[in-house]
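Researcher: Quick test of sequence recovery. Tokens follow.
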């Protein structure tokens, strides 16, 4: 398992909240997730380039690879229809980082929150402020852990190991 890699850049929300994104950007294809009435729009390269605003580069100190000004503006506006979460994870051999942010009614309601490679992975418990950034953000969509399966597992976000695999399916 030491060589296992995982990488995901995506937008999670209810299908009706994500539908206008697909209408505006044909590459924004929602994929239904497990255990909830939610879908993931993987932020594949083509979609990122369609949405991104040229001239607004992501700085090296920014915690996200693809949460550009264009993507953030689009998701802020789209959150008028309901809660949206943008998440990123990048792991190789158990080391990596993850970031998440959530919007509702055009306002940030969570994050941005980042877990860096040198930080211990937080364990989820009954405290709603516990868990990884992605787990905490998913709670804003109403996702709940089920037994030992945290919110990430409940949604089946481990179904594919790379963003590109979500884009193909």
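Model:
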């Amino acid at each position: 398992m030491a060589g296992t890699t995982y990488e995901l850049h995506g937008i999670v929300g209810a299908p009706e909240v994500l539908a206008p994104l697909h209408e505006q950007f044909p590459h924004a294809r929602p994929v239904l997730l497990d255990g909830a009435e939610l879908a993931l729009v993987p932020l594949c390269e083509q979609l990122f380039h369609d949405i991104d605003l040229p001239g607004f580069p992501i700085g090296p100190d920014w915690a996200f690879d693809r949460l550009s000004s264009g993507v953030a503006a689009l998701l802020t506006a789209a959150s008028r229809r309901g809660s949206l979460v943008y998440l990123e994870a990048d792991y190789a051999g158990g080391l990596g980082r993850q970031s998440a942010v959530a919007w509702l009614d055009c306002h940030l309601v969570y994050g941005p929150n980042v877990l860096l490679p040198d930080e211990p992975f937080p364990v989820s418990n009954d405290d709603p402020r516990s868990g990884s950034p992605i787990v905490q953000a998913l709670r804003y969509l109403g996702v709940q852990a089920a037994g030992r399966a945290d919110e990430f597992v409940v949604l089946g976000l481990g179904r594919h190991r790379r963003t590109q695999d979500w884009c193909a399916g």
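The chain has one domain: 5-168.
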